[in-house]
Amino acid sequence: MHDDQSGDPHDEVVRLEEFIEDLAAKIESCRKLILVSRIAVAGGSLVLTGMLFGAIRFGPAIMAAAVAALLGGIAVWGSNSSTAQQAAQELASAESDRSALIEEMDLGDVTPQGAFSARSQNGTTA
């Protein structure tokens, strides 16, 4: 949470909601990158296994690309997993703070008195 809290709880709730939306977008971006990295790890592993068993003809460029995909995928997967976990923790904290602020606000009933008494028994207005 940020330290630039204003005195108005409504402004703080709006700020927290924007922060929550940013965190949700960050988590979604991490999930997409994790999926791409899993595909890279699987592809690199399959190519290396195929070369090992002779299903794919050995070539230094192909092997280097497979190793790069495997190792790069592992690095991106780990990095984005930890980033997503940290963002999820921040998201939970921000949602908790927002809920606490909303509960502290003195929110009145916005329904005008007698708004529903104008309806008759059959559901139409008089």
Structural class: mainly alpha
Outline: rod-shaped
Low-confidence region ranges: none
Helix count?
A: 2
Radius of gyration: 27 Å
Fold and architecture overview:
This protein is mainly α and 126 residues long. It has one domain. The protein contains 2 helices and no strands. The protein has helices at residues 9-52, 60-104. Helix 1 runs antiparallel to helix 2. The chain is rod-shaped.
Show the helix and strand layout.
Elements: H1 9-52, H2 60-104
Keywords for this entry:
126 residues, mainly alpha, 2 helices, 71% helix, rod-shaped
Task: Compose a concise summary of this entry.
By secondary structure, this protein is an all-alpha fold. The chain has helices at residues 9-52, 60-104.
